[in-house]
Amino acid sequence: MIPLRDVNPSRTRPIVNYTLIGINAVFFIYELMLGPHLEYFIQAYGFVPGRFFAALFGIPQLGIGPFLGECLTVLTSMFLHGGWLHFLGNMLYLYIFGDNVEDRMGHLRYLGFYLLTGWIAAMAQGVLSMHSLIPNIGASGAISGVLGAYLRFFPHARILALVPVFFFYELVEVPALIYLVFWFILQFFQGTFSLLAGAAGAGGVAWWAHIGGFVGGVLLAHRFARPVRRRVVIIDDDVWPF
Fold first, then answer.
1. Which one of 84, 86, 111, 167 has the minimum C-beta count within 10 Å?
2. Span 2-13, pLDDT tens digits
């Protein structure tokens, strides 16, 4: 199913979400300009599990400097993409689902949540491929966290999606609960298959980053939710909250 939009208007302007999309676009345009130097750039600023854990375990001998450098790549990797399809697909999901989550959390909480679930996603993939020297890149881990939060906040929202029916696609409004649970099940089966096939660190799609980000989003969403303000009206010395 390919999402086109959600039937769930946002009450506030999603400034952070637009900014994240813009930063991703700037990084992607820069990647396109690198030409033959792109591979070196991805190696330097992508998240490489083997390099990260080597720096972590090497802190007693090497000091904390190399580890902090590898921590930085967890952040930079969230804004790198491996091609047009990778970039456009991620930005479509972020555009559709991110505005409502930002509306529910508030701007700064949303930014912190996005970066935290991106970190969780990277670690989920990293611990299953600790010796891999293949860079992990993409915003999909953090966006998976956004999807998890959307499921917690708006399970009854409607998602307008293109659904394959034999050789054609139909426009269908799908409840967010069904759409996102189906999405997660697909990621889980793909991730499990990659483990059984011994492909956790063999490149391709980082399924466990999607799974880890989504689970982190589901678990942490209400921790980042904006406090609900309650109005109080005093009538004849009685307090009526509503």
1. 167
2. 889 999 888 899
